[in-house]
Design a protein that fits this description.
6 helices; Immunoglobulin-like; six-stranded mixed beta sheet; Rossmann fold; alpha/beta
């Protein structure tokens, strides 16, 4: 007959039952700022804990639990390792708030993955600590009126995401942009262009619109297979040759940081925002509802800056654009569906 000690039996039960051993970390706490935070906005999480003998701090798991709800999936953030017994470690990282307003509890726990993979594989966890945080409805900046005058500064923001090509809309965007440029000729207006997909850039700064600039600047950029402008052409490889996501946040960030405020911003897009982040690559991408909600919320923040700087935003939906998503970008009414005679 085999005899099992209490400790051996406990370990066996943990293995059989799939349970995870509890870390003995002490003095753990979590803080979240700002509070309140807008839906989908950035939250700075600060997790503090004291490491005990034989255990390491390798990652922090967290989740937002809506008041009256229970549990939910844990998300994981790799953090710098903490390995000194008895030492208190503080780890700060940024996450996105939930996209649905309400009162939440932010729960967090330390993770020690014995295989050293941090957020991957199985691991042991500390006790759960929590703090409350309120997620508010996002503020939408009013859309300023257009100046009652000729000679405007105008900005075209052109979507060149993969879905533009998949839906056969590249030529339609080219044609619509060309028609708009031609309509400004002789009005004393200046025009700049922002192009975006997973990221964004400014191919054309503010340029007076006249016959010369149309021939030497705008047509070379907009006409496929033309001479290009400074090596740029709409929907070339500048924004990548792989998957081209739809990053509205990056588009408006480029408008806000690399160009002077326009009187009028014309925003061409064909779909829902599927990426967010303003760096050389997106912070996250995806077509799931959670990712799109965060992407829209963060785009709204940049569009708020655009409008606060005095720019009137008008959105043009190409193909199957979701018009309800334009409300946080404009003011709920300044948009239209671009219609062509092409199939």
């Amino acid at each position: 007959m085999i005899r099992l000690s209490a400790i051996t039996l406990l370990v066996a039960l943990l293995i059989i039952g799939g349970a995870t051993a509890l870390l003995a970390f002490t003095g753990s706490s979590v803080q979240a700022t700002p509070d309140p935070v807008v839906a989908g906005g950035a939250v700075e999480v600060t997790f503090t804990t004291t490491v005990q003998s034989g255990e390491d701090l390798e990652a922090v798991e967290y989740r937002f639990v809506l008041s009256g709800a229970s549990g939910g999936d844990w998300l994981c953030e790799d953090v710098a390792n903490g390995t000194n017994t008895g030492q208190e470690y503080e780890r700060t990282f940024s996450v996105n708030a939930p996209s649905t307003p309400g009162d939440y509890t932010l729960e967090a726990r330390a993770r020690d993955d014995n295989s050293g993979n941090q957020c991957s594989g199985s691991g042991a966890f500390s006790n759960i600590v929590s703090t409350s945080i309120t997620v508010e409805e996002p503020y939408v900046e009013p859309n300023p009126d257009l100046p009652d005058a000729c000679g405007l500064d105008v900005m075209l923001i052109l979507d060149s995401s993969g879905s533009i090509d998949t839906a056969g809309q590249v030529d339609n965007v080219r044609n619509a942009a060309q028609s708009f440029v031609n309509s400004l000729a002789g009005t004393g207006s200046r025009l700049a262009v922002v192009e975006f997909a997973s990221t964004a850039y400014v191919p054309i700064g503010y340029t007076s619109v006249n016959a010369t600039s149309i021939a030497n600047v705008f047509d070379p950029y907009l006409v496929e297979g033309g001479d290009q402008f400074n090596g740029y052409e709409y929907y070339d490889d500048t924004l990548g040759t792989g998957t081209r996501w739809t990053n509205w946040e990056a588009a408006f960030y480029q408008a806000n940081t690399n160009l002077a405020p326009a009187d009028l911003v014309i925003f061409f897009t064909d779909g829902d925002p599927t990426a967010y982040g303003i760096g050389s690559s997106p912070d996250d991408t995806g077509t799931d509802s959670a990712t799109e909600a965060i992407a829209l919320s963060r785009a709204r923040l940049q569009a708020n800056i655009t409008k606060a700087n005095g720019s009137h935003i008008f959105a043009v939906g190409v193909a199957g654009a979701t018009f309800s998503n334009f409300a946080p970008i404009t003011d709920g009414s300044n948009y239209l569906q671009y219609v062509t005679s092409n199939p």
